[in-house]
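Record pair follows.
FIRST:
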Amino acid sequence: MTQEMQWTYQAVYGKSIVTWLLYLPGYMTRKFWFFLLSTCMWLPLLTKAQVAEDSTATTHNQHSPKERITVGGYIDVYYGYDFSQPATQDRAYFVSSARHNEFTLNLAFIDIKYTSDRVRATLRPALGTYMAANYSAEPAIFRNVYEGHVGVKLFAGKNIWLDAGVLGSPYTNESAVSKDHLLYTRSFAPEYVPYYLSGVKVSMPINNKVSLYLYLLNGWQNIRETNKGKSLGTQLEYKPADRWLINWNTYVGDERSTANPENRTRYFSDVYAVYNPDGKVTATACLYMGAQKRLNAAGGMAGETAYWFTANLMGRYKFTPAFSLSGRLEYFTDPDEVQISPITGEKGFRTYSASLGVNYAPAANILLRMEGRSFFSDKQVYQTSRSTPAKTNALVIASMALSF
């Protein structure tokens, strides 16, 4: 193929992608999609030009900072079947992979990163059913921002960074990116803590085994502020050996809002550990508790304190580099309905869950999964396929995730 034919092909191919994406349903404007896609199409060429420019500059000035722009991405598609057959096709209690009987997109994002000696930035615009469900309370302009933050190294001789913007969350041993975790579905633990945070973060190593992270935040998973207060968060990361990772995280902040005017201070703490001794066996466990201060019925400060709690244990065994088996056991309770109000009208939420998953990685950057999951409760917090209250529920789900 000649160079002229290549450029013609790229132009036609690029137009077809742009045309398709401009008509995607969603919250973002067509002008923004056009700008984003144009940027992504031209960015590889601009990056090459930047590298060439940096090489020339380095020839004349050996002290020039090293700058780099990288572009990657992630696509996670799935099909799930919930045996309660929800009429709306939205599975209750979850935001991740939460559509029933539908081939669809859970999460897809473009990962744009800029790094230099003293500055860094990340932008991850995203789409999918996870974004639609988890960001629905945010203003429309923010509903497709998976992450967006900039950072500066505060001192030339010390690895202390200050980052600000929409940040990833340190809480629990799972994030929204399924490929990074032992099972495809998310446990109750990450579904009921922040998946994202908005504020500033200070990262500082204490020694070669311990790192400390400090957060000043708008609140508990909200980009737009909901009250006049600010919240504090901490993360202490400890790596006693290569096979161990232990994290202890905390949160404290005023959680009053228009939706929950009775809320006051929320306290939260979680501990999780990851154990990977030989590459074949991986295990992780998470334990957390939250406490929510509330006004009493008369509006006085001497109100109740409501609690919620969870614990889980997950493991994976690799039979071959490509094939593995994963499992999970968990317990979640929210008796005062801080996080979950049962869809059946039952008072208080409590459940156990068990999962078993098969994972197959035909290549290093793609992962195919099949998982079965059952839910059990002593309360009627689930529904049957006839929409009557039930104590059990079941799910089967298949997925394919690609990173590039």
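SECOND:
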Amino acid sequence: MTRIALPALVSLFALSACVPAAEPPQSPGDGAGSYMALGTEPGWTLEITPGLLNYDGDYGDTKIVVANPGARPSFNGERYVTPRLSVDITHGECSDGMSDRRYRDTVTVTADGQTVKGCGGGILPPAELAGTSWTFVSIGGVEVAPDRPTSLQFEGERLSGSAGCNRFSGSYSHADLTLTAGPLMATEMACPGAGMAQENAFFALMRGPVSTSFPTNGTLILTGADGKTAVLKRAI
């Protein structure tokens, strides 16, 4: 398989705020949507909606659903109290213990007398790009083809991935909200359908300075000088 040098990718990433797996959780009890929290050993999840507290603990063996009593203010956070379930949310950085993801809040849940601790709220930006992995959602405003696997990984001082056709890799450096990558090498294959088109759109985007943002729902957005974007979702 032949390898060709792509033009150096110049300029990326302005860190802002990163994310959970689905929709961005809202503040507890604000009526705007769900607030999610989770923990490990034993695994548990908690969803707070305007109407309910929905707790799933002990790797699914314990399920408690109670009416939302409303949040009480607590020191730097909120507290929910019911006879079977109480929840303390403290606004402060939290690690889930299973990955490098950092969350906005520390969450303590007491369910039928058993207390567990974990994290909740929006996912914060990664402290560094190294060790993170992403998948493409759209490139140039067009959703990526579902049958073409995509990825963008940062490992140590190298990045690699695929925008839907060829594999690429190369060195990168990140400073002053700008990531400079390359020269990158890529395999040289022709791909049928949308795979080649979306790859060409991605490389065209990356030939110039690209700013990045990490919305609270965990999406990474790369924006070129011409306003064109690539949207990625956090995988690890």
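COMMENT: The chain has two domains: 3-17+127-234, 35-121.
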